[in-house]
Amino acid sequence: MYMNKKQRTGNYLVKCAYCKNKWLEKENPNGVYGREHACLKLEQLITKKQAYFETFILPRLSHLSKEQQDKERYYRSIVEAHSLVVGAEAIVWKQKDFGESKACNGKCLSAKNSACECQCRGRNHGLQHLR
In which domain, by residue range, is 63 found? Predict the structure, then answer.
C-alpha cells in the first residue's frame, strides 16, 4: 500500500483564459496573481467594464465621495476583469512513499501543470515560465 502526500511549494502557475499564456509567480500573501498581465482581449474587457460602470453604476453612487467612487471604479472594472480572466493554481509536490523520486530534468523546468514528482520538491517546477 502506498500513500501520496501533497505539499505546497510556494509557487503558483498562472494563466490567462484569453491569450492562453502561462507563467509562474511566487506565492502572494493576499492571493492576487497576474495583475501585471496585459493582453488585447483583457484590455477590451476592462474597457467594457469601465463603460458599464460609468453608465449604470456610477449614477447610483452619487452619495459617495470622489475617492470612494474612484476606488469602486478600480475594483469593479480592473480587479473584477482580472479575476474573471486570470486564474492561478498552486503547484504541489507529490511525495511518494515508495521508490526513489525522479531526478529533476527539462520536463520539470518547462512544466505547465501543477503537479511535481521529482527530487526538487517543486522548487524548480515551471521555472522556465518565471517572470
Answer: 4-129
